[in-house]
Amino acid sequence: MTYVIIGNGIASLGAIDGIRKYDRKTPITVIGAENTAAYGKPLTSYLLAGRINPGRLSMRTDDYYKSKDVSLKLATYIEQIDLETQQLLTSEGDRIPFNKLLIATGGKPYVPEINGVEGDGVYNFTDAKDAYRLIESVKDLKRAVVVGGGLIGLKAAESLYNRGVEVAVIERETRILPLAYDADAAGLIAKRVDDAGMLVRCGVNGQQIVRDKSGKLRGILLDDKKFLEADAIVIAIGVVSKTRLAEQAGIAVDKGIVVDDNMFTGAEGVYAAGDVAQARDVVFDKDKVVPVWSNAYTQGYYAGRNMAGNKSPYPGTMSMSSISFFGLPTISVGEVNPDPENSDYEIYTFFDEIKQSYRKLVFKKDRLVGYVLVGDIDFAGMYTSFIKFKFKVDAQTRKRLSEGEPDVLMWPDDFFNKAWNPEG
């Protein structure tokens, strides 16, 4: 019996913990393409900004892997999953057998179609190596353009700004943060970014990356014919699932690897978790790829439990973004941009532009299904609990929630009864 995990991120740590809860003896092999143990990818922006040192990136010590009887194979690339022989083929020609396999390969940067995007001076911002490349170059950078006005792009821009680089951000949608936040929240964040002195251009695309005759980067031409000078272009739009191995093996793939409630792919002994997996979303009640760090760990944990023989349905994914922009804390959870024509939804908002405070709650029939908080995020956990556990909300509770007064005493009695007396 052998457990093998492809990928060495947060989902793999969840899987190790899940397996070891029920199986303390069977060896585990973790295969990572990067030459480093698991690290916190959300921390790479703080590394680039110079706010933390490289040692802070690590999520586990070497003792962790030793105590869990985990063998790490780093800087190792898997070329093929052979389901018939239950073996993995590496780029070096080696074969690694498995009985239970977890595919946790994560995502790869989405690269838009811009002429000249391949070449010197263009960076991604997904892995630690991207941050290290930028850190090595930052002393020579005066101006940078970040392509992407979402979460990743704005954090990359802020990090470079904190290094003394003049930064411009371009976003193809008509506003920043088009997916994770609503227009009012994005407006508050945009004001904070603008006050910091950063240029943001929305509603434009990069058309061509311009270099001189020697190949040195000069800037980027936009589709509105404006030209932005730059010593570096950072592509930070987002990620797409790394599904190649699964597709080649004949495992079902849609936007990500399709899994059931046990994170099982349908192929004998093979599971998937993290940014590569398409799992059930508790708010939208359909399978989605939701590249959120906490979801990746939880998916890995439940995949590990199931790999170890403990039938444990994954409780479901939830879209969530919690991040600070130039000191302004924000959080967005669940469905925050519902169809305005759908009468099933009811929306409550509170907006104090002077205090830079914003609250939006989205109800669908008798449940809270989404919220946005900017500035004051103290009650975020309470709001999240109403979404996660699908608590029904009566008129009085809805009023108190909308007024910013959530309380644990609003939880239904039967929830407390199950929590404190699970055997009934």
Summarize it.
With 424 residues, the protein is an alpha/beta fold.
Structure description:
The chain has three domains: 3-108 and 240-307, FAD/NAD(P)-binding domain (3-Layer(bba) Sandwich), CATH 3.50.50.60; 122-235, FAD/NAD(P)-binding domain (3-Layer(bba) Sandwich); 327-419, FAD/NAD-linked reductase, C-terminal dimerisation domain (Enolase-like, domain 1, 2-Layer Sandwich). It contains eleven helices and 26 strands. The chain has helices spanning 10-22, 44-49, 62-67, 128-137, 151-162, 183-195, 244-249, 293-307, 380-388, 395-402, 413-420; strands at residues 3-6, 28-31, 70-73, 78-82, 87-90, 95-97, 100-103, 107-109, 122-124, 143-147, 166-171, 199-202, 206-211, 217-222, 227-229, 232-235, 239-241, 257-258, 270-272, 277-281, 286-288, 320-325, 328-334, 345-352, 357-364, 367-374. A five-stranded parallel β-sheet has the order 3-2-1-7-19. Strand 22 (320-325) and strand 23 (328-334) form a beta hairpin. Helix 1 (10-22) runs parallel beside helix 8 (293-307). The two termini are 37 Å apart.
